[in-house]
Amino acid sequence: MKNKYILSALAVAAAMSMTSCDDFLNDNRYPLSSQTVNPEFWSNSVNVQNQINTFYNDYAGYGNRSSTNGTFYYSWLSDDQCGRSGINDWKFKNVPASSAYYDDPYEEIRRANLVIEGVAGSTLNAAEKANYTALARLHRARQYYQLVRCYGDVILAKTTVDVTDTDILYASRTNRNTVMDFVLEDLNDAVAHISAESGKTTFSKDMAQAFKLEVCLFEGSYARYHQNDDTRAKKFFEEAEKAGAAIADKYPVSSDYAGLYNTINYGDLAGNAEIIMYKGYEKSVFMNSITDYSNASDGVAGITRDAFNAFLFKDGKNATTTPATSYPTTDEGVAEGNNAMSIQNLLDVRDGRLSAITYPYAAYVNMAWSAPNTGGMVSSTGYGVKKFNNYAMPFDDVNSINKNYCSAPLFWGARVCVGLLEAKAELGSISDNDINKYMKPLWARAGFDQTAIDALSVQYLKDLNDTANNMNVSSLIWEIRRLRRCELMLDDDIRYWDLIRWHQLELLDTGKYPNVILGVNVKNAPIAPGAVTGDYLNGSFGSSRTFDKKYYFYPIPSGQRQLNANLSQNEGW
Question: What are the tens digits of pLDDT across the range 348-383?
Fold first, then answer.
């Protein structure tokens, strides 16, 4: 959470860093407490770059030091995970007086606007001005995108707001479509004018394209599935397709799925051709706590049965179409020594990404299990979280807060591939050539049978017709969404916002969809867990989550509405 200088988020004094930084290792970017308006200041490129460097703070990755504010693993409000000791309820159940989700983006928007205006009045050359302005517009776009996702209609401030600008400070909310059109303008400027083509730990044109792809996917889906506006949906899906196509072939899928998440030597991830941009950590220099929290003896937020069942079998089929005589369809673990229960036989026949995400043994309260370099972990669902662990890390480094140092991908090839495929599928333009280029490499890396990979085509996906399809979409769209879910599971809070944009948040209702709180099959477990539903571990710990359509948006903080009588509240709050 950032310090607030005054109550109104729009009138917060600028927070500008005076520390230079070449990459994510330098996390000491402390903000100034006053606005910088001196033209001489903005005419110094070093000063301007220092301000740009503060924008990196918005990319949490695995979190900083002992914090749990990272966007990988820690985002437990989805159908992919239960919390450590029960389900995570909605982010807001009541209207808060204030919220960082509302305040912080406006601080950052003001920061970006100050850069844009300061650079415009400087004596920097035209190329420098264009680059710095584009970087600031990229950051501004990110902040407005985050605001719109959370709140829908928001106040749009295109320039730096002063305490005398009452027309903005006391404005009513701007229609979200207008705001998102403005976001697209900012993103297109960033793509056109950022000077660096690429950069593994820095902002670049390619990173801007990758981010634009995500934003346009969100907006295209929102237009189609919330607003029933296919004209607008087509516009944004086409923009998403254009952004993805510009970079997809430049960042080919690597052979090592796990290596995207558990690379431990700072700089090694830069050598991965699939990486567009990453957040680097280094032992004894700048570290995180993700392996400690995801391998904990006091509880891990395990993946759900719903998530486990999302993964196809290696023959490319789902549980309803693959031959039951060849592939088990229930989690009947094999009891082994030391009170362990193996699920290796289940992982062996599934999409190989699942084996990289979870351990081959069940673990829960009263039946802990230790990986080669961890202590006795327990999981809320019995399924552990292996994804961020690297067995080359010593025991103490894995199991201590602020001693973990695997680096975090932010934008990478596979993320682009699944986004590009979705945009093309939504446009109705996806071809077998697209499947060959962008989906088959993902299946190959995941260890699917070669016969399944050879058979993969648009028609194949249309014909799968999984009976688990509960989103009221075609088999093709369902399978593309499955691909995205399995490829990006536990990553960057993606699943929650996907459910939002697809108008599928109801799938998090634990009463209607019990598989989002269930875990491993414990029928043959040597030690029974405390709570069981049928044959499955119940990871809810007695908690529940009930859907209401109001949860599609966060409530506007009451403090903001007290400051601005024209600020309306979201429906239902």
Answer: 999 999 999 999 999 999 999 999 999 999 999 999
Dist CA 317 CA 350 (whole Å): 10
Contact between residue 468 and residue 456 where contact means Cβ atoms under 8 Å apart:
no
Nearest by Cα to 108 from 216, 214, 2: 2
Rounded CA separation 204/184 (Å): 17
Residue pair 282/360 in contact (Cβ under 8 Å)? The answer is: no
C-alpha 110/C-alpha 163 separation (Å) is 12
pLDDT at 18 over 70: no
Say how far apart CA 157 and CA 11 lie, in whole Å: 11
Residue found by looking up tokens 């088999």 in the block: 475
251 touches 378 (CB < 8 A): no
Q: Which residue has the higher pLDDT, 146 or 165?
A: 146
Nearest to 205, CA basis, from 268, 152, 137:
137
Instruction: Supply the mean pLDDT for the chain.
Output: 91
Identify the sign of the CA torsion 107, 108, 112, 118: positive
Please give the angle made by the CA atoms of 30, 35 and 41, to the nearest 5 degrees.
Answer: 85
- Compute the distance between CA of residue 389 and CA of residue 374 in angstroms, rounded to an integer: 9
Give the separation between CA 167 and CA 446, rounded to whole angstroms. 55
Task: Please check whether residue 84 is in contact with residue 296, taking contact to mean a CB–CB distance below 8 angstroms.
Answer: yes
Alpha-helical segments (H) within 86-229: 100-120, 126-151, 166-169, 176-193, 205-225
Between residues 189 and 528, the one the model is more confident about: 189
> Torsion angle, CA of 545/546/548/550, rounded to 10 degrees?
-20
For residues 39 and 129, is the Cβ–Cβ distance under 8 A?
no
Task: Confirm if 215 and 183 have CB atoms less than 8 A apart.
Answer: yes
Q: How far apart are CA 510 and CA 504, in angstroms?
A: 14
Tokens representing 428? 């109705």
Range with lowest mean pLDDT among 216-225, 233-242, 337-346, 367-376: 337-346
Rounded distance between C-alpha atoms, residue 467 and residue 485, angstroms: 17
What is the token pair recorded at 227? 């607003």
Q: What's residue 330's pLDDT?
A: 58
Q: Identify the band that residue 336 occupies on the pLDDT scale cut at 50, 70 and 90.
A: low
Q: What three-state secondary structure class fits 538?
A: strand
Residue-wise pLDDT tens digits, 521-552: 998 888 989 999 999 999 999 999 999 999 99
Is the overall model pTM greater than 0.70, yes or no?
A: yes
